[in-house]
Amino acid sequence: MTPTEALVRDHTVYACVMGSRAFGLATDGSDTDRRGVFLAPTALFWRFEKPPTHIEGPAPEQFSWELERFCSLALRTNPNVLECLHSPLVEQIDGTGRELLSLRDAFLSRQAHETFVRYAESQRKKLEADVRQYGAPRWKHAMHLLRMLASCRDLLRTGHLAIDVGDDREPLLAVKRGEVPWAEVERRMTRLTAEADEAARHSPLPPEPDHARVEDFLIRARRASALEPGADDERVEFVVPGGRAG
Questions:
Q1: Distance CA 201, CA 153 (A)
Q2: Could you give the CA distance from residue 82 to residue 72 in angstroms, rounded to a whole number?
Q3: What pTM was computed for the model?
């Protein structure tokens, strides 16, 4: 294990399973995608070489964000990051992680409409390019795009982000298997986008995330790390991508 990966091993505050297993869409061949958040020791930020903002590994299909980077992305209503906070499959959590989860509503706002739909539009263009070039889309990607659009619509309608697809499991898996004509998939995408647009106009969500509440949490987490016994003697070495060992 590299020193960088040791940050994940020793300083993870929250880890969960994402992807098809969290969405209720897993089949026998599904991978296990793991996502996590680590809190880099505050002493590491006092050096010229800063800790990494994200780390791949050490396990296959594992990806972790440093706490500040994670919060920053969530405040910008990044769909993939927001969904991590709502996974039903939590594998590891400590006190800081529990407080992070208690802030889930602070990250949610009507800005999700723009970020989710804009992301969906970019993914739809890629699927359309596949159809033009190969005669068919990547059906798995089409399935997940439908899932995300429905999740966005329901978030804007209810103010709550639910990622398990529930009763939509079989219709979505039929898309993944290529059993639904592309024209029908396009029709569903267009309908879900229109429903999300309508929901945004009457959403109970606030116009913006609660930046102040999240920043207060981050400052307290950094301060607690700095005050831990032996914090001044932190000797973790890591490699910043494109940089040198610290």
A1: 11
A2: 11
A3: 0.88
Answer whether residue 4 shows pLDDT above 50: yes
Given the structure tokens 């898996």, which residue do they identify? Answer: 173
**Cα separation of 131 and 179, whole Å?**
15
- Comparing 30-44, 199-213, 224-238, the range with the smallest average pLDDT is 224-238
Q: Beta strands of the chain (E only): which ranges?
A: 12-18, 33-38, 54-56, 62-66, 90-93
pLDDT in tens, 123-141: 999 999 999 999 999 999 9
Paired tokens of 62: 């594992």
Q: Which residue in 86, 76, 91, 96 sits closest to 11, CA to CA?
A: 96
Backbone angles phi, psi at 109, to 5 degrees: -160, 175
∠ CA 172-145-129, nearest 5°, is 115
pLDDT tier, 227 (very low <50, low <70, confident <90, very high otherwise): confident
CATH: 3.30.2000, 3.40.1000, 3.30.460, 3.40.390. Which one for 3-104+210-233? 3.30.460
Q: What pLDDT is recorded for position 45?
A: 92
